Amino acid sequence: MDGYLSFAAPDPTILCMSAFDLLLVSCDVLTRDGNAYRVAPDCDIAISGNRIVEVLPTGQIDPGQAKSTVNAQDMFAIPGLINTHTHAAMVLFRGLAEDIPIESWFNDYIWPLESNEEPEDIYWGTLLAIAEMIQSGVTTFADHYFFCDEIAQAISETGIRAHIGWAVFGHEGLTKLDQTVDFARRWQGGAGGRITTWMAPHSPYLCDVDFLRETAARAKALGTGIHIHCSETHEQVTYSLEQHGVTPPGMLHRAGVFDVPVLLAHGIGLTPADIALLKDHDVAISQCPKTYMKLAMGTAPVRDLRAAGIPVGIGTDGVVSSNTLDVLEQMRLLALDQKQAAKDSTVLPIQEVLDIAFAGGAAALRSPDLGEIAPGKLADVVLLRTDGAHFFPRYDLLANLVYSARASDVDTVICDGKVLMQGRQLLTIDLPRVKAEVAARMQRLNQRATERRLATYPVPQK
Ligand SMILES: [Zn+2]
């Protein structure tokens, strides 16, 4: 019974006087002891307001002190999953761009399709994405998209937590950039603190140095971070060297982007010098392996990033490349892809995968109160059913979590102390209504006029 020894001994006086808002009773709990992830069997988790206040062996907390209880017997409690890079409302286009090269994916599909979007589409698309994420145990996501007021509205209504950046291309100019600044100012700390805003220039290949410099200055003045795509393929690195004489991270550094907290999506083409640069500037990386495998983009140097002490989190990217918003699936694929690329089955063992998913996700979003079930942390907790045939035997719950668990095992989701799903019933989203609203828009949204594309993906000379 060593899984909870690091917690403070219970003070019976405090326990008797406290009235918990929520008590999760009798679950196995994923805990962290230093860098080691372990299972604390048969524990109760007490929540007051939006914080976890106690995690103790069942029987030590009087259920009578809780305003409400959830029977979590035979469930496995894990921290709410963190999706560190996505474009949530791209669910509107799920299944429309399959088995094609990356240049065509951008130029013939994504950017023509996205030119059809109107603000209300983003509201309904984001609600659909949030429903899928809650059903998959995701309680925090980092969104990089358009019409962000509608995204923020969807987050406010559904109870999930999000980091939102309004995606902007350099050719849209400073007026547009300033609109994204206004959004970031308007919604910072919104939805009772569940919303954090970022600046979100698209990428070094679609924002020039001057535009990036202006973005960095605004982020610094606002006190926000910058969430941006970078070095998504080796060809992009070649293109950057030809056009600018530096790698994509070198260009970001030149523009002063690394003077503020930065979250880079992808980093497949990072060089050893890039990695040293990222480390020097406390840059974090998001990894979305399903997209990399599906678009044949290559494999990021995750081991080198981790060895350098750079935070690495898991993302799903948008579903037009990854098809789902399932972080459990991405965790598994990250481990498998890294093993396969290294031709070494010992690479990225279970403990490291868990550290990337939870501690890494929290670090990538600069949110140290996420990613752990422990007193004082934010009350984002997911209860997984473990009675499925694929979860049995339970010799090693951590192995089952990384290599066997499915999104459909998620039974109950708590975010910021509020129950958002219980018994797989979504409590804050009317999913049939959301699907009907999305369906009513599909005829208009799936038109593909390439002359209306939002941007053009630069194709490097071969
Ligand atoms: Zn992306």
> CATH superfamily name of the domain at 81-364?
Metal-dependent hydrolases
How many DSSP helices?
17
Low-pLDDT parts are 1-16
Largest sheet: 9 strands, mixed
Description:
This protein has 462 residues and is of the alpha/beta class. It has a domain at 81-364: TIM Barrel (Alpha-Beta Barrel). It has 17 helices and 17 strands. It has helices at 12-17, 102-114, 119-135, 148-158, 173-187, 190-193, 209-222, 234-244, 248-254, 272-280, 289-294, 302-307, 319-322, 327-342, 350-364, 397-403, 431-445, and strands at residues 20-33, 36-48, 51-57, 66-71, 75-79, 81-86, 138-145, 161-168, 195-201, 226-230, 262-266, 284-287, 312-314, 381-385, 410-415, 418-422, 425-426. Strands 1, 2, 3, 4, 5, 14, 15, 16 and 17 form a nine-stranded mixed beta sheet that branches. A four-stranded parallel beta sheet has the order 6-7-8-9. It has a four-stranded parallel beta sheet with strand order 10-11-12-13. A hairpin with a 2-residue loop joins strand 2 (36-48) and strand 3 (51-57). Helix 3 (119-135) crosses helix 17 (431-445). The chain binds zinc ion. Residues 85, 87, 144, 229, 265, 317 line the site of zinc ion.
